[in-house]
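Lab notebook: predicted structure, single chain.

Context: the supervisor wants predicted structures on file for every construct in the current expression panel, including those that have not yet been purified. This is the next one on the list. No modifications to the sequence; it matches the entry in the shared construct table.
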Amino acid sequence: MKKKVNQLKMHLQFFGDKTLYEMKQNMATIGQQLQKVESELAQKAVDPSASMEDIQKMQKSKEDLKARFDVIKEQHDQMETEQKAQFSQRKKQSFDGLNQDEKMVKAKAEFIRASVQGRPVSDEAKQLIAIPTGNETGGDKFLPTNMQKELVHEPFEKNQLREVAKTTAIKGLEVPKIAYSIDDDDFIDDNQVAKEIKLKGDTATFGRNKFKVKVKLSDTVVHGSDVELTTFVDNALRSGLAGKEKKDALAETAKAGLEHMSFFNETDVKRVQGADLYEAITNAIADLHEIFRDNAKVVMRFADYMKIVKALSNGNTSFFDAPPEKVLGKPVTFADGAVKPIVGDFNYFQINYDAMTYDSDKDVDKGNYLFVLTAWYDQQRLLDSAFRIAEVQETP
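Prediction complete. Output recorded below exactly as produced.
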């Protein structure tokens, strides 16, 4: 019996390197021996010839085996629980079986959660959303390339000017104001354009105007579904970018340093008047040089357009049914911020994002996470000569 007991002697630290399968085998082995000792003990207990010393030794052996079995079972159960949790987590994070759109949603959700919770992002997620490298030394955390493209080109809250403007994301952008040239310096036959080129130069250099968009995330959103989290963050960021662009482009009183962005900044864009708004718009179209007039569009408030239609109709409903392009002679984009109609070739209006970075924080008092986007951007009219502001002539 002593030999058997010595064979069962265990060193608990040895179990640290055991696999779950090996621990199951150990449980089975000790369990079988425990059952055998219990059976022998039961037989000894009813055997009159068995001494109490033998019964007590066997009882002690049973208690030792039971204690050892319980220790192994506890370790086994703990390891099994941990492995199930790890498997469940890997399964949850796995991109297998997902289409490309679903993979992008999951990758973006992982990136956002990791950012606000201070966790690393998996390699597969990094590849899907194209996280830029080179930030290991603690520099700016650049927004993933694919997310930046979506924010720049797919706004949620509409900046109606994006429907007619060119939008880019190029670092240090410089573009020629006129896309072609001829050896003869006199090829520009629009005097206003020629004067502008001479005064301001023939190249537009886009600056880096910094602003932040802060997205507040509750615990329920962060720990909710991937689709809900990414949709919430995307919508908030896009709304912030679009709102900022529109506010700067249509500001009646622009902030210091941002004056060049506004169509309504002092006398940057030529004003053309008319007896009424309809005449002012048509006069402005006619005042454009033909190189701009052919591609001209009108940006104006819907309420102003309805006043024009009502005045032109004079009891006839045909103008209400007609498309705006047929009424004004040029395509129309409606924007409530356009306090005066803007007429021009919007190929000469460009919005550019130089860079985007992100950061995160936690509002402990309110229990919200903060996902913060910092953007550097600029928007410029390559040629003021390509635009006109339509005004109603004031009568004395």
